[in-house]
């Protein structure tokens, strides 16, 4: 199990809080990614066609069909995240749900992206009226989830669209309540069956009462 020292440092900066904890992924949970990213690619002459739940291998140059390799995908993602304010809106229902929980739970955003994009994402979230603390990680999310919980075993709900992140959280925190939320539910067909202790939710309207119940809000 890995632990990102920069993420650990960011967690140390948070004020201590003993309210129930709600940890949220950002891309395709709080901010739209899979809808705007293909439009961004199109502007640059690329097309995204899913035949599996990953970007590499599914992005091609439109002029000649050449598949984009991993290094180019990273470069495109870098450019997209640099310019995220122009592309990424709020996932439907997220803002109202979170503001409804804000007094009663500690809400923390945990995004798997290079630390160098943290300030850009922070500014964009602030501009969108999402003031919740933002942590970046370049490693597995589970250790960060465990560290965020703190010493007193408070209830945790964790929402992510990437099953490996939920599995990582389960490995680190046995009693975390895990929610799988996808901005585009049609992509579920490309996923293997989820472990049965992960709650599948269709959208924020479905998720909100379920999260409230497990956190006792
Ligand atoms: Mg995500």
Fold and architecture overview:
There is one protein chain. The strands form 2 sheets. A 6-stranded parallel beta sheet has the order 5-4-1-6-7-8, sandwiched between helices. A two-stranded antiparallel ribbon has the order 2-3. The longest helix has 13 residues, at 70-82. Helix 6 crosses helix 7. It contains 8 helices and 8 strands, in the order αβαββααβαβαβαββα. It has helices at residues 5-12, 36-43, 70-82, 94-101, 118-127, 142-149, 163-172, 204-215, and strands spanning 21-24, 46-48, 59-61, 106-112, 134-137, 156-160, 177-181, 198-201. The protein has 2 domains: 5-33 and 88-215, 3-Layer(aba) Sandwich (Rossmann fold), CATH 3.40.50.1000; 36-86, no CATH class. Strand 4, helix 5 (118-127) and strand 5 form a beta-alpha-beta unit. The chain starts with a helix and ends with a helix. By secondary structure, the protein is α/β, with parallel strands linked by helices. The mean pLDDT is 96. Helix content is 35%, strand content 16%. The site of magnesium ion (MG) has 7 residues, from loops. Magnesium ion binds at residues 25, 27-29, 160-162.
């Amino acid at each position: 199990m890995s632990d990102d020292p920069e993420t650990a440092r960011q967690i140390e900066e948070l004020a201590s809080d003993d309210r129930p904890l709600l940890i949220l992924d950002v891309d395709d949970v709080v901010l739209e990614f899979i809808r705007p990213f293909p439009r961004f690619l199109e502007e640059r002459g690329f097309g995204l066609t899913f035949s599996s739940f990953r970007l590499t291998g599914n992005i091609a140059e439109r002029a000649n069909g050449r598949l984009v390799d991993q290094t180019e995908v990273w470069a495109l993602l870098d450019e997209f995240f640099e310019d995220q304010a122009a592309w990424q809106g709020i996932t439907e229902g997220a803002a109202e749900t979170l503001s409804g929980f804000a007094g009663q739970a500690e809400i923390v955003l945990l995004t798997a992206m290079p630390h160098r994009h943290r300030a850009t994402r922070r500014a964009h979230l602030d501009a969108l009226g999402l003031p919740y603390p933002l942590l970046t990680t370049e490693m597995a999310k589970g250790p960060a989830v465990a560290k965020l919980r703190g010493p007193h075993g408070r209830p945790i709900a964790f929402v992510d669209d990437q099953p490996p992140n939920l599995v990582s959280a389960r490995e680190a925190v046995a009693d975390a309540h895990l929610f799988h939320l996808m901005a585009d539910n049609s992509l579920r067909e490309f996923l293997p069956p989820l472990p049965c202790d992960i709650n599948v939710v269709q959208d924020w309207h479905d998720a909100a009462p379920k999260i409230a119940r497990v956190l006792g809000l």
